[in-house]
Design a protein that fits this description.
Length: about 140
């Protein structure tokens, strides 16, 4: 099986069986993201205890890539500290832009193939942009 096929399978798996879909009980941080050009619209729901992300969920509608990316995000950052989650967000955004990751991003590396399709980069990065905005308290993410 080629690497591209493996990446497609991971993305489709997260789209068809999204992880952590739904609001988190006791959420105290929310990040909203919209991509008007594709129709992606999501809300990240986070429960912070100090600097620790103890629970992360998401809800919304969007294309397969955006929804899969949101699902992968929740699995990747849950249990991390705010600074670690923000560093991950930067690494994932760089990966989706076609840069080589500086660390092992696990199954999130399935998003690397999105770099070949410039129109989908915003779809894949929207959840990660919304995460940064949520943790920095900057409001709503919109990719246009």
């Amino acid at each position: 099986m080629s690497l591209d096929n493996l990446y497609r399978r991971v993305i489709l798996d997260h789209y068809r069986s999204p992880r952590n879909k739904g609001r988190v009980k006791g959420e105290n941080v929310i990040g909203e993201g919209k991509n008007p050009s594709c129709g992606d619209d999501l809300v990240l729901s986070i429960r912070l205890e100090g600097d620790d992300l103890v629970a992360v969920g998401w809800e919304g509608e969007g294309c397969a890539i955006c929804c899969a990316s949101a699902s992968m995000l929740t699995k990747a950052i849950e249990g991390k500290r705010v600074d670690e989650a923000l560093a991950w967000a930067e690494s994932v955004k760089a990966l989706v832009r076609g840069e080589e990751p500086k660390e092992d991003l696990g199954e999130v590396e399935a998003l690397a193939g999105v770099a070949k399709f410039a129109v989908r980069v915003k779809c894949a990065t929207l959840p990660w942009v919304a995460l940064g905005i949520a943790l920095d308290g900057e409001g709503e993410a919109t990719t246009e």
